[in-house]
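Q: Please design a sequence for this.
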């Protein structure tokens, strides 16, 4: 951390010691969210999410492949992510960074654990099944990529259209929707000193001691990801689960409005 980052971190901590966030939000308030679907014309499904100044793009491509050997009657689902250099000065071109890998895994884990995509419906015939590839692109970073990515992924899934397979050929034009059995959303919290806050901004993440992302389907917790060195007490986690379940309702509405 350089001198400027240290000054910013200390400023954030000083404000929080007075119960104030740098953008004026309450501790459990989420920044404004906008969701747009159909933003990549050639994709089977796509969505852009703006969470405050954080911007994430998700695109879905569906191709015909041979099923995995351990699931011969199912299709497959895979997530990848890329932190584009234009999003933040610390991001570099090249192989996926640990941060990009973590973002993809956290997004994948929630969707897979809740069985959001009906993999059995992707089976076509012996030796052939559809594979769903979800790519996440971070266009601008200002904290909390996890929640933005999960929301973009679910909105892209909800808007996705299935290709057709006829006479041995893949036909992209289709009105059939990708079958989805569930919807998930995540809520990320940061701990800075003794303060816990939802939807941390970039400055707040830089000052944080601990981070936790809780993914739910509105009924149960389907995945949890802890980050940074700090810890969480059980009572803190139980309280944050309640907050996550409560916020899920509004996040799901953002997806359903598309």
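A: Design:
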């Amino acid at each position: 951390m350089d001198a400027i980052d240290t000054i910013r971190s200390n400023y954030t901590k000083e404000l929080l010691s007075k119960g104030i966030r740098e953008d004026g939000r309450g501790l459990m308030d989420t920044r404004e969210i906008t969701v747009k679907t159909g933003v990549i014309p050639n994709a089977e499904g796509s969505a852009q999410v703006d969470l405050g100044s954080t911007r994430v793009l998700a695109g879905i491509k569906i191709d015909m492949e041979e099923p995995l050997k351990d699931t011969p009657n199912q299709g497959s689902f895979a997530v990848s992510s890329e932190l584009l250099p234009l999003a933040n000065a610390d991001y570099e071109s090249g192989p996926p960074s640990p941060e990009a890998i973590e973002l993809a895994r956290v997004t994948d884990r929630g969707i897979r654990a809740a069985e959001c995509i009906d993999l059995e419906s992707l089976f076509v015939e012996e030796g052939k099944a559809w594979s769903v590839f979800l790519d996440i692109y971070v266009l601008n970073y200002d904290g909390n990529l996890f929640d933005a990515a999960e929301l973009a992924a679910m909105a892209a899934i909800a808007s996705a259209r299935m290709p057709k397979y006829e006479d041995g050929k893949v036909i992209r034009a289709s009105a059939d929707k990708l079958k989805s059995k569930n919807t998930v959303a995540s809520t990320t919290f940061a701990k800075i000193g003794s303060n816990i806050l939802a939807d941390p901004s970039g400055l707040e993440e830089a000052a944080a001691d601990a981070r936790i992302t809780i993914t739910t389907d509105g009924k149960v917790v389907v995945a949890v990801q802890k980050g940074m060195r700090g810890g969480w007490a059980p009572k803190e986690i139980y309280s944050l689960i309640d907050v996550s379940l409560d916020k899920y309702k509004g996040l799901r509405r953002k997806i359903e409005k598309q």
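Q: Thanks. Anything notable?
A: The longest strand covers residues 128-140. The chain has one domain: 3-256.
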